[in-house]
Amino acid sequence: MAVQKKSLGSYLELGSMGASLILKNLPFVLFLSFLTVIYIANAHYAEKQIRQIQALQNEVKELKRQYNSLKSETMYKSRLAEIGEDVESLGLRKTSGNVQRIIVGD
């Protein structure tokens, strides 16, 4: 018995059972293909969003470090002794005695 090979053209004939099966299920196959493309695009979008979130989190951490550094530096510079040293160059000095009040009468 010789097995007869069918050519591709014989499958595409409209009278063939295979062609009718393909044509019948073509909308479903196209729908599945569309869903696959949407799924892949969604995965890429989610990964991109995750990378952006991680970059922003790193930036927030760096800004917090800078804030704490500036805050501690400002607290150190606002001490009375530090202010006194800074204004000595302007010719100002801290008084050694009590403050005197000037009272203006009626």
Largest sheet at a glance?
Answer: none
Q: Quick one: how many beta strands?
A: 0
Kindly provide the radius of gyration, computed on alpha-carbon positions and rounded to a whole number of angstroms: 41 Å
**How would you describe the shape?**
rod-shaped
What is the helix/strand order? HHH
Could you report the average pLDDT, rounded to the nearest whole number?
85
The residue ranges in which pLDDT falls below 50 over 5 or more consecutive positions are: none
Strand content: under 5%
Give the structure's gist in a few sentences.
The chain has 106 residues and is mostly helical. 71% of the residues lie in helices and 0% in strands.
What would you note in describing this structure?
This protein is an all-alpha fold and 106 residues long. Helix content is 71%, strand content 0%. The protein starts with 7 loop residues before the first helix and ends in an 18-residue tail after the last helix. The model has no long low-confidence stretch (mean pLDDT 85).
Spell out the key features of this protein:
106 residues, mainly alpha, 3 helices, 71% helix, rod-shaped
Question: What's the layout of helices and strands?
Answer:
Elements: H1 8-12, H2 17-77, H3 80-88
